[in-house]
Each structure stands twice: as structure tokens, then as C-alpha cells.
Amino acid sequence: MKLSLSPLTLALVLAPVAFSAGRNSGQDRPPTEVAVDNARLAEIYKQDQADRQGPIENLDWEKVSARDQQRQDELKAMLARGEVVTGQDYFHAAMVFQHSMDKQGYKLAHELAWIGASMGNRSAKWLSAASWDRLLVSLGENQRFGTQYRQKDPANHKPGDKMVFELTPVDDDGATDGMRKALDCPTLEEAKRRAADF
To answer: What is the sign of the dihedral through the CA atoms of 14, 15, 19 and 22?
Structure first.
């Protein structure tokens, strides 16, 4: 007996095989070539973090924001050239875009962190939660995981005073401490206590 398949049935049967064969291609690298962390991207990440050292009230945010934009522009070009390849690269790139000033940057940060986490980068797990929270807050919604803080009573802050922070409101309907733990986030109560550490 001869089996006859329609073109649609054949496509549906073969699509998972084709998808599976292509999805682990390692960005078109030969199977024996091992991806190496991008040294320039690691340097960009270090610069990003160095810009945020010291008491927050002493930082010149106008200058930091200008440098953030330069780093993000360079990183967009690196992404377009396919130079972000390892889990560590994706984590570094996500952190740089986490410091964007708009929702497009936060979206990209979340996508990059998610990819880094899927590649086994543990730090990217937390960042995938933090970038999702930051995106939600930027859209005027409550965060889910409790990673974002805001200045408490900014209208009454005087220059030279220590800035006081509080946890940005959390929509905890559905998001649990178990989910937070799975993403290496503190429990909601721990997150509230951490506001005093800023």
C-alpha cells in the first residue's frame, strides 16, 4: 500500500524537524567552534556599572545618561553584526539596555536577559525579572517581581540630603515568592526591607 500525503500534511510533519535542526545552530557557527565572550561588550558593561558607583545623590545623571546613550548605540551595532553570542554577552547587553530611558530600551533589555537566562547565565534570570518590572512601571503599571524602587517624597528632597527610596507598587496577584525565588529575586518582604539599603 502506497502512502500519499498532501503538501500541507507533509509541511506540518517536516516543520518541527526543520525547526529543531536550525534552532541550535549556534548562530551559524560550525559545531566544533566554541563561542567566546565578547571582550568589548564586557568593557561596555564595566563602564555602565562604574557610572553608577558612589552615593546616588552625587551622580551627575545628565552625563551618565549621555554615556548610556553612546553605549547603547554601540551595542545596537554589535547586535546587528551578530557579535552578541554567549549567555554572558546577552546578560551584559541586557544590563546596558536596562539603563535606557524609554520603553523600547526596556523591551530590548528584557528580551536580551531572557535569552541570556535561557543560555544558562544565572545573573540574567534576575535581570529578566527586573527588566520586565521596569517595562511595566514605564507603562504606568505595577511591577510583578518587586525589583524596582523609586525615590520617596521627591518633592520635599533638598540638595545635599540623603535620598530615601521605597519599593515601587507591586501587583502581586499571581506572582508568588516561589516565582521570585525561581528568578533569583528576593521575597516581597525582603524587597521591601532592601529599600533602606539604597
So the answer is: positive
Cell numbers standing for residue 104: 523600547
pTM of the model: 0.80
CA distance 128 to 110: 5
CB atoms under 10 Å from CB of 112, counted, come to 27
Domains of the chain by residue range: 38-197
**168: which DSSP letter?**
P
Residue 163 identity: M
Given its phi and psi angles, is residue 36 left (phi above 0), alpha (psi -120 to 50 degrees) or beta? beta
- What are the pLDDT digits (tens) for 72-111? 999 999 999 999 999 999 999 999 999 999 999 999 999 9
User: Per mean pLDDT, which range of 9-13, 53-57, 124-128, 183-187 is the poorest?
Assistant: 9-13
